[in-house]
Design goal:
Elements lengths: L1 E6 L9 H16 L3 E6 L2 H10 L6 E2 L2 E2 L3 H25 L3 E5 L7 E5 L19 E6 L1 H8 L3 E6 L1 E3 L5 E3 L2 H11 L4 E6 L17 E3 H9 L7 H13 L4 E6 L5 H6 L7 E4 L1
Parallel strand pairs: 1-2, 1-11, 2-8, 5-8, 11-13, 12-14
Antiparallel strand pairs: 3-4, 6-7, 9-10, 13-14
């Protein structure tokens, strides 16, 4: 049984420390039950804070960070450094054994530079996001070597090509690619909401379970909107390529992750093919 968990950078801030600890305590329980666990994380808030401290002006287009060479330096420090270390230290404190990784370590995330493309809601001209990458491969062997020996890979969403060039990659994209390559039985995407909601302002409208067809209909109806659309579309592709269950969760209490994995449908939204 294999589990991939994606955490956004906001989970690695002091304000969200309690929720992060709740998730990691559940991970301890799941690992004892035989799950092999991989973490993927972002670092948006950390990168923005560092950019501002360095006098840089973050440039976000369509929810994606335009990445020039100066921005990439900030990402290397904030995502590959601060955010990764924060997650590793929390895992260590829970008795787990984390191993810090990125695209340049073990070739875990192979990538190529993303060509300019048209972005929904941002006009008709292609946008060049700079040093932003697309995943071209995952080193599954490294992940298997670590997880079968009870280590927990902690992967920063920075990819690398064969020449050692580094690229900023969206953490959801990385998590889905790893879940496919690692043949994960479960992929967990931790968001700011407690699942996919029919009314984004009303947590009681949580949708317990969504198939691909139902999810696409929800997008067309406007129920799933804005930044949740690319998250869902990436997840649908992962389901079609072999990931069994994808869980969209948030605002996690102790025990919620275990409940989600055990398919009680009482926590978050489970996406199925």
């Amino acid at each position: 049984m294999r589990l991939v968990i994606k955490l956004g950078g906001e989970l690695l801030t002091p304000a969200q420390e309690k929720q992060t600890k709740n998730i990691l305590k559940d991970v301890c329980e799941l690992q004892k039950e035989g799950y092999e666990v991989v973490f993927v994380h972002g670092g948006g808030p950390q990168t923005t804070a560092l950019q501002k401290a360095l006098g840089q002006e973050p440039n976000i287009v369509g929810g994606r960070r335009v990445t020039d060479s100066e921005t990439l330096e900030a990402i290397k420090m904030a995502v590959g450094g601060k955010a990764n270390l924060e997650l590793c230290r929390h895992l260590l404190a829970q008795g787990l054994t984390p191993v810090s990784l990125n695209g340049a370590s073990g070739g875990v995330i192979r990538a190529t530079r993303r060509p300019p493309r048209i972005v929904s809601g941002c006009g008709t001209e292609p946008i060049d996001f700079g040093l932003v990458g697309d995943v071209t491969g995952i080193n599954k062997e490294t992940l298997e070597l670590l997880t079968c020996n009870k280590f927990v890979p902690v992967i920063a969403c920075i990819g690398a090509d064969a020449d050692g060039a580094l690229y900023n990659i969206n953490a959801d994209i990385v998590a889905n690619a790893i879940a496919i390559a690692f043949e994960a039985t479960h992929l967990v995407l931790v968001t700011g909401a407690p699942g996919v909601l029919r009314d984004r302002n009303d947590p009681s409208t949580r949708i317990p379970k969504l198939s691909i067809d139902e999810g696409q209909a929800a997008i067309e109806a406007g129920i799933i909107a804005d930044g949740m659309i690319p998250k869902m579309e990436e997840s649908f592709r992962a389901l079609e390529q072999g990931v069994t269950n994808i869980h969209v969760v948030g605002q996690m209490k102790r025990g919620d992750l275990v409940e989600a994995i055990k398919l009680t449908h009482t926590v978050g939204t489970t996406l199925v093919k």
